[in-house]
Design a protein that fits this description.
pantothenate biosynthesis, 8 strands, single chain, alpha/beta, Pyrv_kinase-like_dom_sf, globular, 3-methyl-2-oxobutanoate hydroxymethyltransferase, magnesium ion binding, TIM Barrel
Length: 293
């Protein structure tokens, strides 16, 4: 019996296969983006895109648009759940968001953050938390904030068969220790960031994400590493770039970080739609005969 003949949910329900997406540089994507495809991009001098996603519709839209990597960030804490920082989100909440995105994305590599408090105690704790994200959240890899001090944790995860994306520079889970949202890697601390990146690569991280790092420093780290790098506020010299989708699409109001480029005014569009709906309801023009049974 072929896959097309299998009943749902075992087959695809008779739906036509999704054609491979084509990136803006004309390079066709594989059926499913894997970590070795990101490595190929690094080796060939190409770039890839990554966006956060926390729900099925955003995941489907970005997946269809050809975004190579979807990140279920712990930023869901302050972009979905209403917290002021990323710290309050729990592993159970991350698993719920992760499963939703993983079920909706058919081609992107899906990565989930290890939230604060789920990995710091020991490598064993990190493995247990990551296993849950892969088994229950259905993700393909985890992202972990931390310096070279977490190299042994990365090794433990890799030994367990769990791909790890390392996160250095400004690490939001450590914002209180770092004194707030501040650029990292300036002056003498640039060498420490390079040392962190090299140690995490040596431990087995398949990728290193750098946040709020000076462009020159990020470029030097990307050059020194054999694995791909991803930047957010780290200049244009990294292999990939990531943004929080609500920032990218203009959904979140208020002051934006310097590194954010808004590609739409989704907040304005939704606001106008809501006003129009309310006006139609108040005037009695909605629902009309065409909307009634």
């Amino acid at each position: 019996m072929t896959d097309a003949e299998l009943p749902a949910p075992y087959g695809d329900g008779g739906a036509a296969p999704v054609p491979p997406a084509e990136a803006s540089n004309g390079v066709k994507r594989p059926g499913r983006v894997r970590i070795h495809h990101l490595q190929q991009a690094k080796d060939e001098g190409r770039h890839f895109a990554m966006l956060t996603a926390y729900d099925q519709y955003a995941a489907q839209v970005f997946d269809d648009a050809g975004i190579e990597v979807l990140l279920i960030g712990d930023s869901a804490a302050n972009n979905v759940l209403g917290h002021a920082t990323t710290l309050p989100i729990t592993l159970d909440e991350m698993i719920l968001f992760s499963r939703t995105v993983s079920l909706a994305a058919s081609t992107a590599l899906v990565v989930a953050d290890l939230p604060f408090g789920s990995y710091e105690v020991s490598p064993e704790q990190a493995v247990e938390s990551s296993v849950r994200l892969l088994k229950e959240g259905l993700v393909h890899a985890v992202k972990m904030e931390g310096s070279a001090a977490y190299a042994e944790t990365v090794r433990a995860l890799v030994r367990a068969g769990i791909p790890v994306m390392a996160h250095i520079g400004f690490t939001p889970q450590s914002e209180h220790a770092l004194g707030g949202y501040r650029v990292q890697g300036r002056g003498e601390t640039a060498q420490r960031l390079l040392d962190d990146a090299l140690a995490l690569e040596e431990a087995g991280a398949f990728c290193v994400l750098m946040e709020m790092v000076p462009d020159e420093v990020a470029r030097s780290i990307d050059t020194a590493l054999g694995v791909p790098t991803i930047g957010i506020g780290a200049g244009a010299g990294t292999t990939g770039q990531v943004l929080v989708w609500q920032d990218m699409a203009g959904l979140r109001g208020g002051r934006q970080a310097k590194f954010v480029k808004q590609y739409a005014d989704l907040r304005g569009t939704l606001s106008e739609a809501a006003r129009s709906f309310a006006a139609d309801v108040r005037s009695g023009t909605f629902p009309g005969p065409e909307h009634s049974f």
